[in-house]
Amino acid sequence: MRQLIIQVPRGNGKAVIDIAISHNGANLAQFEGNADEPIDLVMVHISNQKVGEFVEQLQDLPKVHISLIPTGVIALQPPASEAPQQVVDVEERSPIEIFLSGLQSVGSWRGFLGYAALAGFVVWIGLYTNTTYLLVAAMLIAPFAGPAMNTAIATAWGDRPLLGRSIFRYFAALAVTIFTTWLLSLILQQEIPTSLMLDNSQISAVAVILPLAAGAAGALNLVQSERSSLVSGAATGMLVAASLAPPAGIIGMSSAIGRWDMVISGLFLLFLQLCGINLSAALLFRIFGLSAQGTRYQRGKQKVFFSALVITIMVLAGLLTWQFINSPNLQRSSLAQRANAEVQKTVEQVGLAKLIESNVRFTRSNIVGQDTLLCVIYVQRQPQVTASNQEISDRLTQSIQTHLLKQNFNVTPLVDVNVLETPTFSKNSTMENSG
Asked: What does pTM read for this prediction?
């Protein structure tokens, strides 16, 4: 439940009480006071879902002032035997409360940009030193989740001013993080990308699933009452930032060392994340009733909602089309997995050796006009095979390269097959060692 304190001119307190009773308000109280004129103060506890309707009806009263306490309260009423049921009766937050909290969160700039800069420092250290847990720390302090979710709130509500301010804050925070990482790479004279940069810059064909899931998780967290959620806001915010902080750091660092292919991958990810988060979160907000229709807060317009949603879908479709026609640059992670499966299949079909391990990845080197796929394979000869290790290696190398080229991966497969021998011990040597 939510607690509201309503201030009205003297004599109107009874009307507030009657409206609260019509919305099943609990633990109602009225006090008389004086401000510039005699007033009535009414304390109301009301269900989360009824806050919006209650506030709407209060607008008909003269000179009404409303204080909404944005935290859950437990309003217990007699008989005492019903207290357990009253405690577990938890509802989602009201749409108007979600919308107003979104408006409130776009006010502060100094702390917002400060966190964006700090996230840049931490993500740079993590990428530069190949320290994964520092990337997690950067995700925790990166302020990207707020503007991303506010963009979805503005889309669902159809609020053009909030939509514009949220998108501006989103790209302002990203610009600060990117600039911070770019400047650090220049100052410390970084010359080549680190392995963690390369790993995080490789995009999967299913990369769009992460922002869709992050948007849905963020929307659910904002909709649910704080007493009904088993997942903290920090966790869902980290999920949103997880898809944004590393790409922002990679863009800054890669531009400093001239790796424009990695810059393009990072930019692709940032736009993909924003569109995916906005699509899933906005639709979920609409399902939970977040809409300006039927309210007096007429900043929101239905045509703005449809326009923003259509633009989001069109941009997302364009990004996905670009991803799948621009192979392998924007699908390297998925292609490496598929190529690894094809390598294992080829070794099994040739039949000269058993596969021990295969490592397939795109290389760090940036050879113009060539996407190098490095395949390092360890095999063990089959017992009945009499061919030499070199013959086995040459045969498997040729077969794997030919098979990968037929798959139209648009890569240059460089294959290194290592044939390993099992240790052999004679009976006498074993007895001597035991003696």
From this structure: 0.77
